[in-house]
């Protein structure tokens, strides 16, 4: 399971490219205080992690339900 999670992270990292998203985040949160920015970043990270975990554990069942095979 850990190896699979590491492979998934390694495959998604270049696609998501979090380093390139930093200027966008800073621009969108320009009027926020540092405390508000930190809270927002934490909230976004948790939501993204939840979506990725949902896809990791539920994706196979969803593909099977629609009859899609890899």
Q: What does this 3D model show about the protein?
A:
- By secondary structure, the chain is mainly α.
- It has one domain.
- It has helices spanning 2-16, 18-28, 34-66.
- The longest helix has 33 residues, at 34-66.
- The two termini are 19 Å apart.
| Strand composition percent | under 5%
Q: Which term fits the overall shape?
A: elongated
Task: Characterize the main sheet.
Answer: none
Distance between the termini: 19 Å
**Any low-confidence stretches, pLDDT <50, length ≥5?**
none
Search tags:
mainly alpha; 70 residues; 3 helices; elongated
Short overview:
This protein has three helices and no strands. It has helices at residues 2-16, 18-28, 34-66.
Produce the secondary structure layout.
Blueprint: H1 2-16, H2 18-28, H3 34-66
């Amino acid at each position: 399971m850990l190896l699979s999670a590491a492979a998934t992270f390694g495959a998604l990292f270049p696609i998501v490219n979090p380093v390139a998203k930093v200027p966008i985040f800073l621009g969108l949160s320009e009027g926020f205080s540092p405390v508000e920015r930190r809270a927002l970043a934490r909230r976004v990270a948790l939501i993204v992690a939840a979506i990725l975990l949902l896809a990791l554990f539920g994706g196979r069942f969803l593909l099977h339900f629609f009859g899609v095979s890899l």
